[in-house]
Amino acid sequence: MHQTNRNAKKYCNSLTEYSRFKTRVVNIGDIPCGGDYPIRIQSMTTTDTMDTKATVEQTIRMVESGCDYVRITAPSKLEAQNLDSIKKELRNRGYTVPLIADIHFTPNAAELAARIVEKVRVNPGNYADRKKFQTIEYTDTNYKAEIERIREKFTPLVKVCKEYGTAMRIGTNHGSLSDRIMSRYGDTPLGMVESALEFVRICEDMNYYDIVLSMKASNTQVMVQAYRLLIKMMEDEGMNYPLHLGVTEAGGGEDGRVKSALGIGTLLEDGLGDTIRVSLTEDPEYEAPVAISLVQRYKSRSGHKEIKPIEEEPKDPFNYERRHSFELSGFGGSNVPRVVADFSKRKMKNQTDLNDIGYFHNAETDKWNMNDLAADVLYLGSEDIPFDIPNGLKAVYDFDFWIKLENKSKGFPLMNVSQYLGSNQRSKELNFVVGNISSFTPDALDKIKQDKTVVMVLETSNVHGVAEQRRILFDLLLKKVENPVIVKRGYQNLNLDELRLYSSTDFGSLLIDGFGDGIWAEIKNISEDGKNSNEHAKKEYVRTFVQKHESKEKVINRTLFGILQAARVRISKTEYIACPSCGRTLFDLQDTTEMIRKRTEHLKGVKIAIMGCIVNGPGEMADADYGYVGSGVGKITLYKGKDIVRRNVPTENAVDSLINIIKEDGNWLEPN
Ligand code: SF4
What we know:
Layout: E1 40-44, H1 52-64, E2 69-73, H2 77-92, E3 99-103, H3 107-113, E4 119-122, H4 140-164, E5 167-173, H5 179-185, H6 189-205, E6 211-216, H7 220-236, E7 244-245, H8 253-269, E8 275-276, H9 287-296, E9 338-342, E10 359-362, E11 367-370, E12 377-381, E13 394-398, H10 399-402, E14 412-416, H11 417-422, E15 431-435, H12 442-450, E16 454-458, H13 465-479, E17 485-495, H14 496-511, E18 518-527, H15 530-533, H16 552-566, E19 575-578, H17 589-600, E20 607-611, H18 617-620, E21 626-632, E22 635-640, E23 643-650, H19 651-664
């Protein structure tokens, strides 16, 4: 299997100074993509493409919610032809939105659609190949012959696109790589990039350059690495095509938003991305506002407070490797990243306050129970609490308050760098030292490095905070400072939806690179109402997913656990890999996902895919443990991994059958 070049690391303009990575401009109708044009927002319809009225009306709702482009599935020539009626009706109603035809497996539908709409999307994993999940040994000659076979199938489409001025997205999906690519590269980021570049090279041989590229995956680590590698390999080959960013099968609700923000936001932070689609298992008009909120942050990012450039990059951005730290009181080493609950602004009255962060006190037995979202650290600032906290939870107080405590062993001090350097008072076991890039001076780091009682808390006030925190984390690697590090970020004047998206981006960007032994969000003036401060996103489509009477501490605790799960560094719940649905979908994805979630959400760590159709679903379920896939009207086919275990089960029995399969496998637990 091919390896990436560990010395060739460049995948963006700069790791310390924000600027957009400049790509070529591709005209898509009258809304160009790439270059200095704004990052474009897009989404995909879920209606039956043959239902012109429903598709037109949904497209209009999507445009009203902020979409610059709208994608519509064209599974066969019939639907491809109907794009003409849809387009005409939209134009009649005054909507000039560029349309994109989504193609899988059907070159003849693609060639027809390319004469009608402004852009076609092809999946290089299935345009010329049908997947049989076979490993085939290719000699170089055989491999070349395969490329020639693809050229033959693909060339007619390129010709039509050239003739009609139609743009094309060559969109790789991690889950649907061809057997040929899988056999040679495995399901790796390199395989994903090669899969697209094989098609791009054919286009370039024909002098066709109106191309946009995407590297989607449901696994956020793979997705980020693939986009980075794509930039690197495009640069090596003198290409600069615009990037369409997205996380596939992200699911819906809070989890879908966290996962999308984490994957897409990590790339946006480094200036990558020319158009984005947030895929949610919800009506498509709810996707654009999320995408708009994500993009909004970078409109004024240039000109941020300067960060000293990085001279030596100590890690490989194309592979995941966790930063090595020593183990200290449950932090660092091989421990999962910890979650800090910030209760410094909350006056606590009794034990029930801790229900919000996963601890439940039984008054009769005076014992605590905890759930899978139980926080690890309780930051109390300069306030004490009138009851004993559970054993597993570590109380942390401000240093000045802690030194006055009669019983210092009830918690641990949080000191700033000057307090740490200037005083000998500290805990024998565990001290938290908080600072930023300026206060963690070389002298301070030398001292901390020798002190095996210190967990560093890294904060930032820089608007380009991920880059600043990454800068100091790189320094720690180079200086071999191995104390555990908690990454802390502060948020204010946002609504809860923005808080969820921005914290997912900020923590996720570092976690995905193997940084962070804990995460801590400090929040101030956060409004619960999504309609309050979200000026930029179309308000009626903003969702906050907050139940009445839920405290902000509860919401942020849930979000932090969600971020760790989405970054794949701490698993605390069942993972749902749900396709966003489209015109091929054979059942109500939102209701079905909800129904499956209700019955299985206690199965921590189990990955369940819920896919709307058997044409693309199985290929795109990525690394799910079980799959629930629509295989006909009222029929569901159930998978264990990539293998079919029950075929065409009637819908009414399908969830029970899925649970039986999980039971047979020994992965079932009875809910509490
Ligand atoms: S898996 Fe879902 S989104 Fe993908 S083609 Fe099938 S129904 Fe559409």
